[in-house]
Amino acid sequence: MESSNDHWYETLSPGTVLSLPDIDCSKARIALHSELFDAYHPVNTSTDNRFGRAIAHGPHPVAQAMASVGNLLPNSLVAMSQLGPWRFLCPAFVGDSLTADATVIGRGAASRGSGTVVLEVRIIDPDGRVSQIGEAHLLVRQRPKPQETA
Fold it and tell me: CB-hemisphere CA count at 13 Å for 69?
């Protein structure tokens, strides 16, 4: 059943902003990420680095943001066709809670029931600085045509 909050290719026009849930960089979440990807680099596990604090593994906020985008498009997302370019501008520290949004910056022509939607994803640190920014190209379904009644 379609809800009024569903997003389709037609409704994701340039300028549309999707607010994403906060990104949890708690010690427990970073530990799970490190375990899952065998990513135990000292910059993520130690304060003995150039930042003086352990940082959230760079791809961790990206993965949470992209999972959130998928959750916002449960009936229309077909696949991600490209991720990037992506820039890491300032660190996210272990223990931070980050905010994020995704703005539609372009669309490709639709065919066979779906089209490409290009998002600019911005991840913001607790001080309001852009921590990461990147593009995600998604294949998104067009809104289904209403069933004709007999």
Answer: 30
